[in-house]
Write a structure and sequence with these properties.
The chain has eight helices and no strands. It has about 230 residues and is an all-alpha fold. The longest helix has about 35 residues.
Length: about 230
């Protein structure tokens, strides 16, 4: 998180709107970079691959980035949660549910809705249903990584949180983008402006809730009840 975002956390004055505002630039730059990379990939593939091969390649890339997204989502959730609560088991539950829900929302549900709104006959695919055996190792490593990183000093945690969140959003941008291509949106370049906007929405809201809003809410829930 940026210094401004960090101030919101430390001062206990953050709101959902302020967190989204803080993390919005991450999403803009990440999605822009991801679209540039996709354009480069399309340029290369157009010279050598047909549409079917392009979809297969995008499908493989989607799964790779989606699985990496789960690692960073689980890690970021636990780093934030354990800064405000020492309840290990509750933190793990929050980490599991948060990564499962928001990674699916960011990488599959919102890109699918965006494609359908743009008139594309998208195919819906949810890895937490069809590929749960492949997801579990990444989820477990993300939870372990988040717990280990949360044991470090507060200064290191602050650095880890910023670094993890930046990579988290970048990986999520690639996952959402390759979902679009691999599930029916081959001619995305014709609507690149709309794709840009939809991907920003698909990335910034779920990732902000996953890394900041949800873990902070549940970490403070018991404390707030006492007051």
């Amino acid at each position: 998180m940026s210094d401004h975002c960090e101030d919101h956390v430390n001062d206990h004055k953050h709101t959902i709107l302020s967190e989204v505002t803080c993390h919005f630039p991450y999403a803009v730059f990440s999605v822009a970079f991801a679209l540039a990379m996709l354009s480069f990939i399309n340029f290369l593939s157009s010279c050598h691959l047909d549409t079917q091969e392009t979809c297969k390649g995008a499908h493989l890339l989607f799964h790779s980035f989606h699985f990496m997204h789960i690692v960073f989502a689980a890690t970021g959730t636990l780093i934030t949660y354990y800064r405000f609560s020492k309840n290990i088991w509750k933190g793990l539950i929050v980490g599991i549910l948060t990564a499962s829900i928001f990674c699916t929302l960011s990488d599959s549900v919102l890109p699918y809705i965006g494609g359908r709104l743009l008139g594309v006959n998208m195919h819906f695919h949810m890895c937490f249903i069809s590929d749960i055996d492949k997801i579990l190792p990444f989820l477990l490593v993300g939870l372990l990584n988040g717990y280990v990183m949360s044991r470090h000093s507060s200064d290191k945690q602050s650095f880890y949180s910023t670094f993890s969140h930046a990579i988290h959003i970048l990986v999520s941008s690639f996952a959402a983008m390759f979902y679009l291509v691999s599930h029916g949106y081959i001619n995305w370049a014709a609507d690149i402006g709309y794709v840009f906007i939809f991907l920003i929405i698909a990335v910034v809201v779920p990732c902000t809730f996953s890394d900041v809003v949800v873990p902070m809410y549940f970490a403070r829930a018991k404390k707030n009840e006492k007051h």
